[in-house]
Amino acid sequence: MKRILITGASGFVGSNLVYALVREKYQVILLLRDSSMNSFPDEIPCLKAYGSIENISLLKELVKGTDTVFHAAAYISFKKSDFEKAYQINVIGTRNILEACFKAGVNKVVHLSACAVLGYSLDKDAVLDETSSHEIGKDNVYAYTKKLAEEEVQRYIQKGLNASIANIATIYGQGDRKLNSGSIIASIYKGKMRFVPPGGTSYVSIDDLIEGLLLLARKGKSGERYIFCTENMNYSMLAQRIAKTLKLKEPKLILPCFSYYPALLAMKGIESFSSFARKRIDLMTTQLLKESYRYKYFSSKKAKEELGWKPLQSLEEAVEKALIYYKENALI
Description:
Layout: E1 3-7, H1 12-23, E2 27-32, E3 47-50, H2 56-62, E4 68-71, H3 83-104, E5 108-114, H4 141-159, E6 163-168, E7 170-172, H5 182-189, E8 195-196, E9 200-205, H6 206-219, E10 225-228, E11 231-234, H7 235-246, E12 253-254, H8 260-273, H9 286-292, H10 301-307, H11 315-328
Parallel strand pairs: 1-2, 1-4, 2-3, 4-5, 5-6, 6-10, 7-9, 8-12
Antiparallel strand pairs: 9-11
């Protein structure tokens, strides 16, 4: 029986990955923070370790005899004030787990990254792939630190570590306890979304993503990126489809492109002079505002052709599953 370690096991992706691997009868080890002690029922057949990817000694013990490591732990923030924390977790933490895996001779590492590192376009007809190289500034905290994390992965690949990278679009579905992508669903559900930005985005359902990650562990080529994205659409279409799924009135007012700079100035003011900026994850920050006027469209052709990935779940199905989860857990 293969022994598999998951970092960030209590997170959106990590928790869904745990259940999928347990169903397939793998020996699963979870790296959890102390605050996540009650994330999984006792009857779930897995081994639990508590600590942080900042604890190198712990990581060295956990990877002993491990065949595969899914590195899902990450610090998600779009605020400049969180840069040091994001760097410590996303970059140094990734380096720690890679070093432990390399020294222990782990057979395969699957590094979970984001499509955010591939950038965005001003052209609504442009579709980015794994070769995209976009200059990312330090102000873009999450994308910048995740890009540096990918560079760490590539350094260890050059040393001989077998590792592949998953570049993941915005995820919808059950398990999004912190309402990362779910903030849009919650906003429409509560009737708080009045305006829709003019840009575009992409999505993947959590169920399809988990299937892709399992395929990546088995078939992914070392040193290669693989994009997991089901569909691209503008924000107007996204809001329309979510609202229809929720059986609610859709926001129809699309912000004009010329509103970008006034909106940006207003957002900077809000972040500077209110408690808004102190929230862990916000529906809108300066960085998210910038991206909402751009197009984040991606191609999953490589994952489909090389891994045999076949995304099947529609946005509507993923939103329905997310809504059930949010209600069951009193999140909305």
